[in-house]
């Protein structure tokens, strides 16, 4: 509170303190210098003991605090209370009411209880028993003299703290709980404005159930190859479609759900491009189901999305004059899903290296630049330069303007032009004979 007062008074870092503030500081230092106390570290943790956590909270105009006591109860002995945890916080800046401060104190006590229970490493079986027994918590009133959290909000000198109930809690903690002198305060909203709405909201919240997240039958984490995953999915769907057709043929009945995914599959033994398209649509829809939580997140609300006939979520863009649907309304892929990682690998590495193969002399390539792909210049590979380890990492190229340049292999994007010999491919010769700038 002393530091907070200094901030409110508008002190700069090198401003001297007033005489009144210096006197307050000296008093604080003198009281702390004479303070000595012992806190027990052992709480009698044995198999024969039972334990209770008692949380006390209180608030004043400037501070709210909570104190946690552990009550060790043996079968034949009285409970032994010990301070386990305590915390105090200053009030937020600005005007704030006492009821709000009390609410902040209760909130801090609840958070403290959650942290302590998680740190106690209670086994799952015990937690299940607690849930099965429906153990309830209650709010009780303690007067100022018996509430140890009150001293944290009002402050104590070192001398007063020496033998204070702060360390062990009030004296009645050492007696059975049935003899504790407190008054039950069950929360009620019947007397508050809007009570009916609050009660309805509470009932609605209590009836919500937490469902397990959906796990797809597609093994997205078993491979990093997008093409392999599509191929395997297409073959599995083809197999299931053929098995289904045989069963229905033997039973002399036709399937009615023609619009289902197996109903759209061709039953011929050859896997067609349409089968791969169907498999890709299935993968996208399944990754939506697994990432439903991300779809419902506020970050997705900023996108204007629509769902096409295949179940793909597309993002509306302003490129209305684009030639393809993927440019006008690209398909939304969730960034937190493994499918996104596979697509990045497929687009950035596999398609340019694995499928295209190493560069060769005579190939026509695009020279990658920091501009739109449509503006990348064409070039012809004249020579490949191998490094000391034998790997080709750069090439000598000739652009359409007859410039001879040396570029890294990573900056050369191959076209679908295949060389027929070791020098200039026939396709390149044909292009040159028709007026190609090379």
UniProtKB/TrEMBL annotation:
Q: Which InterPro entries match?
A: DUF5641 (IPR040676), Retrotrans_Pao (IPR008042)
Domain spans labelled DUF5641: 359-415
On the tree of life, the source organism's domain of life is: Eukaryota
**Record's protein name:** DUF5641 domain-containing protein
